[in-house]
């Protein structure tokens, strides 16, 4: 092996590694306003942390609610992800929606206008929301530095090819740039199961972003 080959290999490896994207699976969950939290859990309730999530400041809370669909079927313990937000939003998979009688719209997180109605039951109260249930669009979190390095912008639609024996390419993946965000792709359980993805997978950006 010539002496100048190994630095080139190292650079090539570094380049590949720098483009690897962790792909994590979001199980059904909800985000909640402080007002709604207090309706369901009682006045003055604060979310308590079960474990930290990969995105800085985000956590899985100990608090869970029952989610009831229009056909009266129930998911009994749906976890709240904190901190509290300005809107209450329930994120389910397509199959979850079918089970509880909803044809869920695929939405960017936070865009819930006209989304599906849903009922939430907590230990101290019930909330009947006229909208708020969605299937979250698959997306990648990152900060501005990562976006520049990967050559993408906030709101761009990209493709991601997963690594592994059942590799697939996800198209229509939304780039979400946040100030403190770490690079992480989120898919729902339907997508992960259909693609044979284990809980912690890796992928690469591809050209095929059309949808
Ligand atoms: Zn996400």
Task: Order the strands across the largest sheet as they lie in space.
Answer: 1-13-10-12-11-14
The overall pLDDT average reads: 93
Structural class: alpha/beta
Low-confidence segments: none
Shape: elongated
Count of helix runs: 5
Q: Profile the largest sheet.
A: 6 strands, mixed, barrel
The number of distinct β-strands equals 14
- In what range is the share of β-strand residues? 35-45%
Order of helices and strands: HEEHEEEEHEEEEHEEEHE
**CA-to-CA gap between the ends?**
45 Å
Ions and ligands: zinc ion
Tell me roughly what share of residues is in helical segments: 10-25%
Radius of gyration: 19 Å
Overview in brief:
The protein is an alpha/beta fold. The chain is built from 5 helices and 14 strands.
What does this structure look like?
The chain has helices at residues 5-19, 34-41, 94-100, 144-150, 189-194; strands spanning 20-26, 29-31, 49-52, 59-68, 74-82, 89-91, 106-107, 116-121, 126-136, 139-142, 157-162, 169-177, 184-188, 200-206. With 211 residues, it is of the alpha/beta class. The strands form 2 sheets. A 6-stranded mixed barrel has the order 1-13-10-12-11-14. β3 (49-52) and β4 (59-68) form a beta hairpin. The N and C termini lie far apart (45 Å). The mean pLDDT is 93. Residues 139, 141, 186 line the site of zinc ion.
Describe the structure using short key phrases.
single chain; 211 residues; alpha/beta; six-stranded mixed β-barrel; 14 strands; binds zinc ion
């Amino acid at each position: 092996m010539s002496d100048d080959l190994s630095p080139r290999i190292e650079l090539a490896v570094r380049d590949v590694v720098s483009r690897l994207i962790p792909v994590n699976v979001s199980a059904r969950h909800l985000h909640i306003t402080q007002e709604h939290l207090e309706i369901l859990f009682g006045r003055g309730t604060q979310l308590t942390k079960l474990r930290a999530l990969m995105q800085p400041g985000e956590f899985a809370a100990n608090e869970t609610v029952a989610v009831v669909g229009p056909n009266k079927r129930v998911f009994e313990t749906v976890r709240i992800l904190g901190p509290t937000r300005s809107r209450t939003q329930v994120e389910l998979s397509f199959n979850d929606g079918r089970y509880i009688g909803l044809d869920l719209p695929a939405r960017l997180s936070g865009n819930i206008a006209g989304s599906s109605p849903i009922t939430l039951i907590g230990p101290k109260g019930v909330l009947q929301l006229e909208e708020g249930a969605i299937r979250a669009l698959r997306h990648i979190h990152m900060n501005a530095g990562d976006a520049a390095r990967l050559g993408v912008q906030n709101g761009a639609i990209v493709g991601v090819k997963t690594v592994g024996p059942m590799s697939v390419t996800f198209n229509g993946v939304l780039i979400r740039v946040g100030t403190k965000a770490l690079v992480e792709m989120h898919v729902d359980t339907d997508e992960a199961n259909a693609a044979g993805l284990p809980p912690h997978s890796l992928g690469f950006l591809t050209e095929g972003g059309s949808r």
